[in-house]
Amino acid sequence: MNVLDENIVVTQRELLRSWKIHFRRIGGEVGRMGMKDRNEIIPLLHTLRRLTALFNDALFVFSQFGHVE
Question: Up-side HSE of residue 66: CA atoms within 13 Å toward CB?
Answer without folding.
Answer: 9
